[in-house]
Specification:
The complex is a heterodimer of chains A (about 375) and B (about 550).
Chain A: H1 2-7, E1 8-10, E2 16-18, H2 34-42, H3 51-61, H4 63-90, E3 115-120, E4 126-131, H5 143-179, H6 181-196, H7 199-208, H8 210-214, H9 226-236, H10 239-252, H11 256-263, H12 268-304, H13 316-322, H14 332-359, H15 361-364
Chain B: H1 3-15, H2 19-43, E1 49-54, H3 69-78, E2 83-84, E3 97-98, E4 106-107, E5 113-117, H4 132-143, H5 161-165, E6 175-178, E7 181-185, H6 193-196, H7 207-211, E8 227-233, E9 237-242, E10 256-261, H8 265-274, E11 279-280, H9 289-296, E12 305-309, E13 312-318, H10 329-338, H11 341-347, E14 353-355, H12 379-389, E15 397-403, H13 408-421, E16 425-431, H14 433-440, E17 450-456, H15 466-470, H16 489-499, H17 503-520, E18 524-535, E19 540-541, E20 559-560
Parallel strand pairs in B: 1-10, 1-11, 15-16, 15-17
Antiparallel strand pairs in B: 2-3, 4-5, 5-7, 6-7, 8-9, 9-10, 12-18, 13-17, 13-18, 14-18, 19-20
Classes of the chains: A mainly alpha (about 375), B alpha+beta (about 550).
């Protein structure tokens, strides 16, 4: 019987299939789905669609979600490929001040968009270079490049913290919902406890204390301070996804295919891995897109308070933090990172909304 | 009988024969007095609330602990001292003048004993009288090791003070109250004692406060100046009210001085512009100074924009107790060649100050232009800096502390960039200003290699820059101001010797110290001697500025129009 249990594979579309075969295996049992019944009724010319195909079809109909998705793809490209490319083309880096010539105007204010600035070479000559969006501050660094490199940081923090929080949240939520009993009680109380913390204050405290020790950890490719924010946001932001995952797991554990899998002797871990998690994927993706937007905003908030990314690394938050000093003379300095932040969070939110609808066929009926 | 009382008696004898003329004179005088009082009342309106905005909180308001320009602005209105700086501008305000002391003290022939006579009539805000004991209490509380006061080096000349600071004596043996006389015995003749006792540390304290020994400071206490601290909510607000028992001669125009803490400079600017606040004590955005000067004019009488040079220096203290700069003068020199003083100053905006490469500021006794380090960066200066740094980088990692307010983060990033050019990879740590210097002055918490500092003169003497900031004997104290942890026996001796000199010799000795230290083993990278830029609301008048007493307008004099 144990052999049988280990070899049985119950899929989420209702089919219980024997992987082992042979005399000891149960014969395959086909349980028709609603879609297939509909197909049968309407005629054999209609092809049954898979789950993911259905999701894609429904998503494709949502133009706003698609636009959001395209924007995000472009943003990743611009941030990780475009930024170094632009830096190379323009001939300077995002942290280089151009105080000698052109970076500041006659009133010692940051230069405006499309300004040519002079770079002091080793020989003492001035080499002309372009500031597309002007200077970022009285330090006279390239606002355009800092915006591009800031996108890198924002995406790294947003995606990293989302992955960590969703990993923790979905694991704990699935375990709580599936096992119930003492595991559910313990995890649910832990969620309650975490939710009861004043989130922002706790994040500020952690970023300002423990965070300073982690700022140097970059794993060779992340900006300084990114790991700190990923850990702080991830470790304090998992509870919402845990709640969602628990409720999904609670409903799934009662489904027939889970009962069927259990009936054929599948282990709990196997059921969670093969039957519960695939059902969690839809809500997880939706949550992920919304979380990325929220964490990007949180990063901007912390950087605004001087606790986020380490200076001089640019982030949209610290660009926004510096800008109010020039709000009467150079208001565009608030506009550029503000627009970037607005469009990015909007794109992630639109995609998230679209995915939620796409993953939920009942919602579109 | 004093000469003054003799003269009074003689005048009385003449009164008998000229009674009628006297009565007429008295009536005329009274009329004139009333007319002049009413005229003064229109120009210096009493009453109302003056509102100040501060960007960050003060360190303490405790008189024996606070050592921060922003607090001293307030304590200039709350303290009564033996000697004080008159509420006047310019040279008239730069002479320490008797306040609670009845005239100048009697000084013994050897210059080591000072006897102050306490003037009658001064009272604390709780009604208790100010006595000679009030000053003894202040000095004992100041020296108490449990208070951990940062300013204890200003006690070094008082007999028995060091024993008290070290915890070997319960009180300072050299300070005694005898009736209305205060006797202060010194270990050596000190040319600057009268200026020292004008510091807030030495202000008279109430007997209740004398018993409150707490290194965290007391937030509410009775004081004997024109105002007292009515309340303080750390990080949020401070309220000063007029001292109802004050009978001294200083002005106390507003009923209340309200300090709001925590607003960004941009908000402070808007508040003062709108008139919801009267003084942007934390400053305004650097880029706005040029606008406000062109809009409201500069240094007009009772004008909204006032700029005064200060006896101050902004500098990067190079921590000589940590591996990077310990016995590494070449690297310290390299930093001095690398820092872009012009760009640093530019971050502060219009009329920020004057670039410098030395310790003493212009106007200070002993100031002599040294011209050791460049005040403008060129390709050659960077080459020179790299040459000096080569082989002396010791790993090239550094921690750079800076304030988190105003333009300080930008200035820190500039220093960071300059350091990178010579191979030092500096990590910036931004701290609230009061936390920055409190931690920097404590050997237990001073985990920095460099810290961007600013020092304003406590009084106009080079001792207050050279000895106070660089004498190595203090670096083991729990709180001190030698942020460079500079401790070179040769210079310690020379500093002590210079402090005992008087007149031109004193100036020459300090000028030599300034040049020699900066040339051979720079404790700092000095950057700028800054101006005090003041932006006021349209509703305030009676603007009087005395940079020796405190920065900003004198708050007790400031009035509503």
């Amino acid at each position: 019987m144990s052999n049988l249990a280990d070899s049985a594979e119950a899929t989420s579309n209702g089919q219980v299939v024997s992987l082992l075969g042979g005399a000891a295996a149960l014969p395959p049992v086909d349980i028709p789905l609603d879609d297939e019944l509909d197909s049968d009724l309407e005629g054999s010319s209609v092809v049954a669609r898979g789950y993911w195909e259905g999701v894609w079809l429904r998503l494709r109909r949502d133009r706003f979600a698609l636009a959001g998705g395209v924007f995000i793809v472009l943003l990743f490209f611009v941030a990780f490929a475009g930024a170094p490319l632009a830096s190379r083309m323009l001939g300077h880096g995002p942290n280089e001040p151009f105080l000698v010539s052109g970076g500041l105007d006659a009133d010692q204010l940051p230069a405006g968009p499309w300004t040519h600035v002079g770079k002091l070479t080793e020989d003492g000559d001035l080499e002309q270079q372009l500031f597309v969006l002007g200077s970022d501050s009285t330090l006279a660094r390239d606002e355009f490049l800092r915006l591009l490199y800031g996108a890198q940081v924002s995406l790294e923090v947003g995606v990293g913290a989302t992955l960590l929080s969703l990993f923790l949240g979905s694991l704990l939520g699935a375990v709580a919902g599936f096992y119930r009993g003492w595991a559910d009680t313990a995890i649910s109380r832990m969620v309650d406890l975490t939710m009861a913390f004043p989130y922002l204050l706790f994040v500020i405290t952690l970023a300002g204390t423990v965070g300073t020790r982690l700022n140097h950890v970059t794993l060779g490719f992340l900006g300084e301070g990114v790991i700190t924010l990923i850990l702080v946001f991830g470790l304090l932001g998992w509870f919402y996804s845990a709640r969602v995952m628990r409720s999904v797991a609670l409903s799934i554990r009662e489904k027939e295919f889970v009962e069927a899998a259990r009936m054929v002797g599948a282990s709990n871990w196997r059921i969670i891995r093969s039957h519960v998690f695939p059902h969690l994927l839809g809500p997880l993706i939706v949550l992920a897109t919304l979380n990325v937007a929220a964490f990007i905003l949180a990063e901007a908030g912390l950087s605004f308070l001087g606790l986020g990314i380490q200076l001089p690394t640019a982030s949209w938050g610290n660009l926004l933090a510096d800008a109010p000093q020039y709000y009467t003379s150079r208001p565009l300095l608030m506009v550029w990172p503000g627009i970037a932040l607005l469009l990015t969070t909007l794109a992630f939110n639109l995609l998230g909304d679209g995915l939620r609808d796409a993953f939920d066929p009942r919602g579109s009926r | 009988m004093t000469p003054a009382t003799r003269r009074l008696s003689s005048e009385r004898s003449h009164m008998h024969g000229k009674r009628l003329a006297g009565i007429v004179l008295a009536i005329s005088s009274l009329t004139l007095l009333l007319v002049s009082a009413s005229t003064a009342a229109t120009s210096a309106k009493r009453g109302g609330t003056i509102v100040l905005d501060m960007t960050t909180d003060v360190d303490y308001i405790d008189p024996q602990l606070s050592y921060y320009g922003e607090t001293w602005k307030l304590e200039a209105t709350t303290a009564c001292k033996l000697m004080n700086w008159p509420d006047k501008e310019g040279a008239a305000g730069a002479v320490a003048t008797p306040e609670v002391s009845q005239g100048l003290p009697l000084v013994s022939k050897d210059g080591k004993t000072y006897t102050f006579t306490i003037r009658k009539g001064f009272r604390f805000s709780n009604g208790k009288p100010v006595t000679a004991q009030s000053f003894v209490d202040a000095i004992n509380r100041f020296a108490n090791p449990k208070m951990q006061s940062t300013g204890v080096q200003f006690l070094d000349i008082i007999k028995g003070a060091q024993a008290a600071v070290d915890g070997k004596a319960g009180s300072v043996s050299g300070v005694k109250a005898r009736g209305n006389k205060l006797v202060v015995q010194l270990t050596k003749a000190s040319p600057d004692l009268l200026a020292r006792v004008a510091m807030p540390f030495y202000q008279a304290i109430d007997p209740t406060l004398a018993k409150q020994i707490d290194a965290n400071g007391i937030n509410q206490y009775a004081s004997c100046g024109p105002y007292y601290f009515a309340s303080r909510t750390p990080g949020r607000s401070i309220t000063l009210k007029r001292n109802p028992y004050y009978k001294g001669g200083r002005a106390a125009n507003a009923d209340t001085i309200q300090v709001n803490i925590g607003n960004d400079v941009a908000v402070e600017y808007q508040n003062v512009e709108k008139g919801t606040s009267d003084y942007a004590s934390g400053g305004i955005p650097a880029t706005e100074w040029k606008n406000v000067v062109s809009k409201y004019g500069l240094n007009k009488k009772d004008g909204r924009v006032q700029v005064r040079p200060q006896l101050d220096v902004r500098y990067v203290a190079l921590n000589h107790s940590r591996p990077l700069f310990k016995d590494n003068p070449q690297l310290a020199k390299a930093v001095n060649w690398a820092v872009d003083r012009q760009a640093f100053s530019a971050q502060g905006g219009y009329l920020y100050g004057k670039r410098t490469g030395q310790i003493l500021p212009p106007g200070m006794l002993g100031y002599k232009p040294q011209g050791i380090y460049p005040l403008k960066v060129t390709a050659n200066t960077i080459k020179q800096a790299r040459k000096l740094a080569e082989g002396n980088l010791r790993g090239g990692k550094a921690v750079l502390w800076s304030s988190n307010a105003g333009t300080a983060p930008l200035q820190a990033q500039l220093i960071q960039y300059n350091l990178k050019q010579i191979g030092i990879d500096a990590e910036i740590k931004l701290l609230p200003r009061a936390q920055q210097f409190t931690n920097a002055g404590n050997p237990q918490t001073a985990t920095f290699d460099m810290t961007v500092e600013r020092w304003g003169a406590d009084y106009a003497d080079p001792y207050d820059f050279v000895n106070v900031l660089l004498d190595g004997s203090q670096v083991t104290q729990p709180q001190h101001n030698n942020y460079a942890y500079f401790n070179v026996a040769k210079y310690n001796k020379e500093m002590t010797a210079a402090s005992l000199l008087q007149g031109p010799k004193r100036g020459v000795a300090y000028a030599a110290l300034d040049g020699n230290m900066m040339r051979t083993n720079p404790p700092w990278a000095p950057l700028v001697n800054s101006n005090d830029r003041i932006f006021l609301s349209a509703r305030v008048g009676c603007v009087t500025i005395n940079e020796i007493s405190s920065t900003g307008p004198l708050l007790n004099v400031l009035c509503l129009k």
